[in-house]
Design goal:
- The protein is an alpha+beta fold.
- Helix content is 29%, strand content 28%.
- It has eleven helices and 21 strands.
- The strands form six sheets. It has a four-stranded parallel sheet. Strands 5-8-6-7 form a four-stranded antiparallel sheet, with helices on both faces. The chain has a four-stranded antiparallel sheet with strand order 10-9-12-13.
- Helix 2 packs across helix 3 and helix 3 packs antiparallel against helix 4.
- The longest helix is centred in the middle third of the chain and has 18 residues.
Length: 421
């Protein structure tokens, strides 16, 4: 698309998200800084629409109807772009953008970036290396599945985020147990057969790549090392540190593999977030999504003079020049504070001490007191985030670990009525 520096043209972006999103406020701040008008489309049940009078209420589950409603809104409120700030509205954004002729990824690409089975098939068809995988449903006999799988293997839902429901199994009995546990998770709201994947476990180090696509060309904004081993049985992410300490040749291969994966899925425009593993077999795509990094993690990234990741995304969507995409600090990192056990969060101790560790920029607790905590693989959130900046990735990683050691959480056992198991 043509990038213009003319800010006199009226621009309005529709952000799609849910009421639980961490991300919306950062996008709103970025748009205000750039003089771009904002409308928010929320996945809202009718009963809650009065609580969000300024939002465009939508049902993300009915993609066609949501896209039609957006198109109707755009007749009187012309839109420059439609952005899903997380995975929740990506299918609606693609469908509505297609309907309105706005820049967008193909709706089929949005589906592939949300459905892990479709993603695996399209990556393989596009010549991108994928591990052995097979799709099953919760109606299949776990004993039959366990006889067909290689070991070690990983069982995962096709459409949950943040490692939720992802489990490693090293034997048939462990796989059967994992399938039963996953079945309870993904059939809670719908007892009908639900799909899931079993795939070969890939050893190796893991990284996350944050980038922007423009007509298929990839600009790498950050490559994060994940220094904690992600070997299972669950795959809870904790520390992200950038810049990567991997050899330059490996980083080049990561960029090339990510570009090939985006091409295979049909992703050509906007932000992407990719998770990759590197081992003796090369570089492997674990997942690639047509969105930016989740949670509050984007706060760790600053570009040019003082631009946020959200500002770059809004700039591209509004047809403005991206500006300076070089990172403005030497090293930075974030720790997603893991939930150590299920229970009711009663007290958080040591936040001030953690924040006082040299290089720590902030400690932000997002979990609410007196509310249930659910760890992985069933849970879908963290206790909060720790941010650090410094001269080297090693110093940043050390500061994050020291800060985490200062934090203590008092968690009371759940009453039976709260138990999810």
């Amino acid at each position: 698309m043509h990038m213009s520096n003319d800010t006199s043209i009226k621009r309005r972006i529709l952000f799609l998200t849910t009421i639980r999103s961490y991300r919306l406020e950062a996008f709103r701040v970025a748009a205000e800084k750039l003089g771009v008008e904002v409308t928010t489309g929320l996945d809202l049940p009718e009963a809650l629409t009065e609580q969000w009078p300024d939002a465009l209420p939508l049902n993300f589950a009915d993609i066609g109807e949501a896209a039609r409603k957006i198109a109707e809104y755009a007749q009187h409120n012309p839109l420059s772009a439609i952005l899903s700030v997380d995975d929740s509205g990506s299918l609606v954004a693609a469908a509505a953008s297609n309907l309105l002729g706005l820049p967008h990824n193909d709706p089929a690409a949005a589906v592939a970036a949300r459905d892990k089975a479709v993603m695996r098939r399209m990556l393989g068809a596009g010549g991108v290396a994928v591990p052995w995988f097979r799709e099953y449903t919760t109606a299949d006999d776990p004993a039959v599945v366990s006889a067909e799988a290689p070991y070690p293997c990983v069982v995962k839902p096709v459409n949950l985020n943040g490692s939720r429901g992802v489990m490693r199994a090293d034997s048939p009995s462990r796989l059967i147990s994992a399938i039963e546990r996953l079945t309870r998770l993904i059939t809670t709201d719908n007892p009908d057969p639900r799909p899931y994947l079993v795939e070969e476990y890939l050893p190796g180090v893991e990284v996350a790549l944050e980038g922007m696509l423009n007509r298929g060309a990839l600009t790498v904004l950050a490559l994060f090392d994940k220094p904690d081993p992600l070997e299972g049985p669950f795959f809870e992410e904790t520390i992200y540190v950038t810049p990567s300490r991997l050899p330059v040749g490996t980083q080049t291969a990561i960029e090339a593999t990510t570009t090939a994966a985006a091409r295979a899925l049909g992703l050509v425009s906007g932000p992407i977030h990719a998770e990759l593993r590197i081992n003796e077999g090369g570089v492997w795509i674990i997942e690639i999504a047509g969105r930016s990094i989740g949670g509050l993690c984007s706060q760790v990234l600053r570009f040019g003079v003082d631009a946020s990741l959200e500002e770059l995304i809004v700039r591209q969507a509004a047809g403005l020049s991206l500006g300076d995409t070089t990172r403005s600090d030497r090293a930075a990192g974030v720790m997603m504070i893991p939930i150590p056990e299920a229970g009711l969060l009663r007290e958080i101790i040591g936040v001030d001490e953690a924040a006082a560790i040299p290089l720590i920029e902030s400690v932000e607790i997002t979990a609410r007191l007196n509310y249930p905590l659910v760890p992985l693989p069933e849970g879908d959130s963290y206790l909060g985030f720790i941010f650090a900046r410094g001269e080297t990735p090693e110093a940043v990683e050390s500061a994050l670990r020291q800060a985490h050691e200062r934090l203590k959480f008092r968690i009371d056992a759940l009453l039976p009525i709260f138990s999810l198991q």
